Amino acid sequence: MNTPHGVWLDDLTWEEAASRLANDPVVLVPVVWSRPMRAAAHLPMKSATTIARALAQKLVEDLPVVVTPLLVWEGDTVSEVSRHILRERLDGLRARGVRRLAIVDLGEGDAREAGLAAEVPVLSVCNSAAAPDYATCCMLAIDPRSVRMQLLPNSPRVQAFAGERMMAADVEAARAALKSL
Questions:
Q1: How are the residues of the chain apportioned to helix, strand and coil, as percentages rounded to the nearest 5?
Q2: Taking a C-beta distance cutoff of 8 angstroms, is the pair 156, 134 a contact?
Q3: Segment 98-108 mean pLDDT
């Protein structure tokens, strides 16, 4: 499992994880902020996590990083429980000798609200605010059968190709941000 590309931490055995972490990799903690109230009627509830997982997988395929399992925050604000869970994840990784950490914000929110930006860099990857049809286009690219086309408002901008391009731009932005760290 010591390949030149990245790996999901939970795909490793304990021994493989110890070996991989001993090589001082960059460890990414992906955070997904899912706001159910903003969900479109034509998209399944899993849209935010599906998109985040696909983006994180592209980072795994492109970069020599270790990616932890997704942390999913739901609601309009970061709760104290969310902050605590994120701190526990970061502290657990540090206890295993991880020195190079980054939080990857893959959702509609701002992980900086967790109050950890001074300790750990936060990379905002999923810029869903830039395109109103971001989630729909991405879901058409990733899992088109899950989009309820009969409920989709008629929009010429909603295309799988657009979703692929937006996701590729997000991955490129993450790659550039990680290189600058």
A1: 50, 15, 35
A2: no
A3: 84
